[in-house]
Design brief:
The structure holds two protein chains of two kinds. By secondary structure, chain A is α/β, with parallel strands linked by helices. Chain A is 61% helix and 10% strand. Chain B is α/β, with parallel strands linked by helices. Chain B has two domains: 168 residues, P-loop containing nucleotide triphosphate hydrolases (Rossmann fold); 68 residues, no CATH class. Chain B is built from ten helices and ten strands. Classes of the chains: A alpha/beta, B alpha/beta.
Chain lengths: 503, 250
């Protein structure tokens, strides 16, 4: 625990070093966004608006889910992020059973958080049809479907199964259709084009609505819950950055559903960066000019490689410093060793995302929790191999060292550790390679690295981005790390031991 | 020199040494002998403090051997085991000098001591740069002996030092060992299961059986005045070797 505390402090000092005196004059506003395009666009909007209001915006893009973001907001790691009213009521505050807006605001206030008014659109389940067909059949509202029992409906399997999906829709509107099937979301759009089905479920701001020229039917009986987009920001933000908050709230009611669909389509279909999609909107509607800076692929690769290496290097170095003594302890006191290895084994079984989320209240988001998680995962292989290496030393050699009159420390340093060096190094190598792979998950909590392009690629269904900028460089890095350690073996494993292996 | 009084040792509830009293005379070679499992190696390991007795006291030069002073006292003892116990990651040179370097001997002192030891054990100086795996079994034992003698110990303890060698090399080394012991006039305690070797090298022989001392004396004491029938049995079992030794002596 103490070691971990010190570690945390060291890491925080390392990472927070470059914040200077300018902080007083220009308030820093940290913005978060979830790992899907619309949220990232809203995050970029917030960043542009905040910068325009004279504050210094830092956008932590595509973090791994509602829990990560809300915990980070509560912990003060984030100042603001876009959220949906339905998510707040049903997910974040689910245990409180809040219903009215007043209740939600009160519950959030108790956590030091303020909810803005709706930004103007709702991203909820919706039913879509091809515009032409809807026009011909004169269908505008979901209740109009009742007049057309011959229509074939195709829904995503999630929508078919969810209690608030198809079953509820059918009961609420008394829909008569018999031909209802479940199919993959992507296939549903194509089936719609071919005319195999006439209506499907979608999210009301999906970019595909524009791409496939779909009409979103009005939910006239209010079947689907409202998922109004809002800002969630810390209650202390208006005091720290009043102009930034004013700029953010200026957006309330300004983003209509078609506008949001258009922005999503710019990013998802036209391949424009979220940054630019947001800037275009601000220039058009609020006449705000923004400076866009975009990196080339080489710059991005270099940045991600740097972030990735830093995560691995810091976590691995600290793990070696902690795990070696633990391994030595475990080798010399077998009973203590069992306890140490059991604890290490337990840590290993904690799913990485869970571990990352646990640490947000203590360490916030970004590199520190990722480094601590990687550090924890690195311990087991190093401790285990150190222990095994030391225990496998023949007792004749151990006793020879003792009989010579070498002190305990000299025996460890001059005889036991060199004899165990091959095993210890193998453990470090294993930890390093696992680290390089696991570090990609750090992107879920804003730690950067090669996980970043992988997340973006998944979000945009861009396989090239995933492979070329994420998975392949990460694999390459793992190979390089392995090669470096194999080279290191020549210097660290004593020559006499390598001779033996040649025989 | 070394004195054991009322020393016993039990492993996992099985007694390997009943209370034993033994005095190792100064300047002589004492050989501990007996069938496998008789406790002879245990006795040797007790003398250098690698294991602690369950009861009784081990005294070295009049001092009780304790875990606290064991490290200090060991530096006055040399210890050689069957396969040499050389550290495979160190060259012969580094194996021999490891403790001297720890004690801060200067390079000149170490170098001149190495020359002395090389002459004594007939180990070539240019072989010192090799690693144990690059040496023959006989050479390894020479290096191991050099290491044991490096700090000029008052006593040398050897646990079956020639046990892993083939017969030809073994007999050469037996002769060499005897010359070395005689020229050094050191107190030597050696464990062997070979009565011929014991008679050849030992001034005094201690025969053990199932954790107790059966008889202590010269080889001729054992042959001509056996303390109990087991002594004769043990001797007869190795008779052929003894005959050869008798022929060589006559």
């Amino acid at each position: 625990m103490i070691a971990r505390g010190i570690l945390t402090i060291v890491i925080l000092m390392l990472l927070d070093a470059p914040t200077g005196a300018a902080e007083e004059a220009v308030p820093k506003v940290t913005i978060g966004s979830k790992s899907f395009t619309e949220s990232v666009i809203l995050g970029e909007l917030a960043a542009h608006l905040t910068n325009d209001a004279g504050a210094h915006a830092v956008h932590r893009r595509q973090l791994g889910g509602t829990r990560v973001l809300f915990n980070a907001l509560e912990a003060g790691e984030l100042d603001v992020y876009p959220e949906y009213s339905g998510t707040i009521a049903r997910e974040i505050l689910a245990s409180l059973n809040v219903n009215s807006e007043a209740e939600i605001r009160a519950a959030l206030a108790a956590r030091g958080i303020v909810m803005s008014r709706s930004l103007g659109f709702s991203n909820t389940y919706a039913i879509g049809m091809r515009e032409e067909l809807a026009e011909t059949l004169k269908i505008r509202k979901i209740s109009d479907l009742r007049q057309h029992p011959e229509l074939a409906l195709g829904f995503s399997s999630e929508f078919m199964d969810r209690e608030d999906g198809w079953p509820r829709l059918r009961d609420r509107y008394q829909l008569p259709q018999r031909d209802v099937r479940g199919l993959d979301h992507d296939l549903a759009y194509r089936a719609l084009q071919r005319g195999a089905i006439q209506a499907t479920d979608l999210y009301s701001t999906d970019a595909e609505i524009r791409a496939y020229k779909l009409r979103v039917l009005q939910d006239d009986l209010g079947c689907f819950p409202a998922y109004d987009a809002v800002w969630l920001y810390r209650a202390d933000l208006p005091k720290r950055a009043p102009r930034a908050v004013a700029a953010l709230t200026r957006l309330e009611g300004h983003i209509s559903t078609p506008v949001m669909i258009a922005m999503n389509a710019r990013a998802r279909l036209d391949g424009v960066s979220e940054d630019r999609a947001a800037a275009e909107f601000l220039g058009r509607t609020l006449a705000i000019k923004t400076v866009l800076k975009s990196d080339g692929m080489i710059q991005r690769l270099a940045r991600h490689a740097g972030e990735h290496l830093a995560l691995v290097a810091i976590s691995l170095t600290t793990a070696i410093v902690v795990a070696l003594p633990l391994g030595i302890l475990a080798a010399n006191w077998p009973r203590l060793g069992q306890v140490i290895l059991a604890v290490m084994g337990m840590i290993q079984t904690i799913p990485s995302l869970a571990l990352l989320v646990f640490m947000i209240p203590v360490l916030g988001i970004g590199s520190p929790p990722a480094i601590v998680a990687l550090f924890l995962y690195s311990l087991l292989p190093i401790v285990r191999n150190t222990t095994t290496g030391l225990r496998d030393i023949p007792s004749s050699l151990r006793e020879s060292a003792e009989a010579l009159g070498l002190s305990r420390w000299a025996r460890l340093r001059l005889v036991e550790l060199p004899l165990a060096s091959r095993s210890i190094l193998a453990g470090i190598k294993t930890a390093a390679v696992i680290d390089v792979g696991t570090a990609t998950l750090g992107a879920l909590i804003g730690a950067g690295g090669f996980g970043q392009p992988i997340l973006t690629g998944i979000r945009l269904a861009d396989m090239r981005l995933i492979l070329l900028e994420g998975a392949l460089p990460a694999a390459l890095l793992a190979l390089i790390v392995q090669a470096v350690f194999e080279l290191a073996e020549r210097f660290l494993v004593p020559r006499g031991l390598r001779l033996r292996s040649q025989r | 020199m070394i004195e054991l009084s009322g020393v016993s040792k039990t492993y996992d509830g099985i007694s390997v040494l009943s209370p034993v009293d033994l005095e190792i005379p100064i300047g002589k070679t004492t050989v501990l002998i007996g069938p496998s499992g008789c406790g002879k190696s245990t006795l040797l390991r007790l003398m250098i403090g690698l294991i602690r007795p369950d009861s009784g006291v081990v005294r070295f030069e009049g001092m009780d051997l304790t875990p606290e002073n064991a490290t200090q006292l060991r530096r006055k003892m040399g210890y050689v085991i069957q396969d040499g116990g050389l550290f495979p990651h160190l060259t012969a040179h580094d194996n021999v000098t490891i403790m001297a370097r720890q004690l801060g001997w200067d390079a000149g002192r170490i170098a001149s001591r190495l020359v002395e030891l090389g002459d004594l054990t007939r180990f070539p100086v240019d072989g010192l740069g090799r690693y144990p795996t690059q040496l023959s079994g006989g050479q390894r034992q020479r290096v191991s002996l050099m290491r044991a003698l490096m700090l000029e110990p008052d006593v040398v303890l050897l646990d079956e030092p020639l046990g892993a060698l083939d017969p030809m090399i073994r007999s050469d080394l037996q002769a060499e060992l005897r010359d070395i012991f005689r020229s050094l006039k050191k107190t030597v305690v050696m464990v062997t299961h070979d009565l011929g070797e014991a008679g050849f090298l030992g001034d005094s022989i201690v025969l053990l059986r199932e954790g107790r001392i059966v008889q202590q004396g010269t080889i001729s004491d054992l042959i001509h005045h056996p303390a109990e029938p087991f002594v004769t049995q043990f001797i007869n079992a190795q008779r052929s070797l003894l005959t050869a030794l008798g022929d060589a002596n006559s």
